[in-house]
Amino acid sequence: MVCLGILVADMVARPVDELPPPGELRLVGEMGLYVGGCAASTAIGLARLGVATGVLGKVGADALGDFLCRSLAAEGLDIGGVRADPATATAATMALVGAGGERAFLHSLGGNGTLRAEEVDLEAGGAAPLLHVGGVGLMPTLDGAPLAGLCARARRLGVTVTLDTAWDPLGRWTQVRQVLAHVDYFLPSLEEAQRILGATEPAELAARARDLGARHVVVKMGGQGCYVLPAGQAQGVRLPPLPVRALDTTGAGDAFCAGFVAGLARGWGILDAARLGNVTGGLAVTRIGAVSGLRSWEQTLEIFKRGVL
């Protein structure tokens, strides 16, 4: 399968519950550089779960881009579809993680902000049966109509399309709606779905997404688990989360997507795939960084069967 979308170098600092006044310096317990971005994090999760995965996206021809490419390749990912563009910088995020695990972000769009549909080769490395798009909202030259055309082309090639959103700092939320008619599985967070679809409750959000053409809808709700509305069903199902102590929620939604898509890749039904997503999302928050808490397929499956960490 292939993950298309944002590739980001994450600098994570914790604990940060407030910023120092201008001109002052405060100490934090730890700070580190990690692989981040929806496409990169989900791809790493899939690789660790034993799913052969390629990555499509853009980085800068710089040190952070080298770091991302080396890190992705070290996870066994096919990075032949990653472009290193000397005309741009690599996307980067400063994640400020509070003592309770919640985080705030400062972000530079970098290469993700200039990725265009014509730069995406859907058949790089051979036609993949699954395409996961991660980071919609942070790719201004691809979001909206260009992405809708790309997803439509993927489906004409017989590819199943899953789509995950990111927080859109430019406020262009409703442009996601035009993509949904070309999506098999829509996987937004609750907060992002509320802004995209203009409702509050998961059931109404899922129904609206399906009215716009998405076949299946899974609303990620963090510590509340997820809400699943399968195609052809009038009522959805709430699935509980894996009970864990959250240390850093960075990348939890991407880890959920990795588990969910890994379930699909193994032929699982949507409910079991969503349960697996709850497990991988829960594992992600137990460590610092978007992918540090993810585990092998065998370890994850054992936790899935037990229902506890």
Please summarize what this structure is:
Helix content is 30%, strand content 23%.
Approximate strand percentage:
15-25%
The low-confidence runs, each spanning 5 or more residues with pLDDT under 50, are: none
- Taking Cα atoms only, what radius of gyration do you get, to the nearest Å? 18 Å
The class by helix and strand makeup works out as: alpha/beta
Distance between the termini: 28 Å
The first-level CATH class is given as Alpha Beta
Give the name of the CATH architecture. Answer: 3-Layer(aba) Sandwich
Mean pLDDT: 95
Order of helix and strand elements from N to C terminus? EEEHEHEEEEHEEHHEEEHHH
Question: Regarding quaternary structure, how should these chains be classified?
Answer: single chain
Taken from the alpha-carbon principal axes, the silhouette is globular
CATH homologous superfamily label: Ribokinase
CATH topology: UDP-N-acetylmuramoyl-L-alanine:D-glutamate ligase
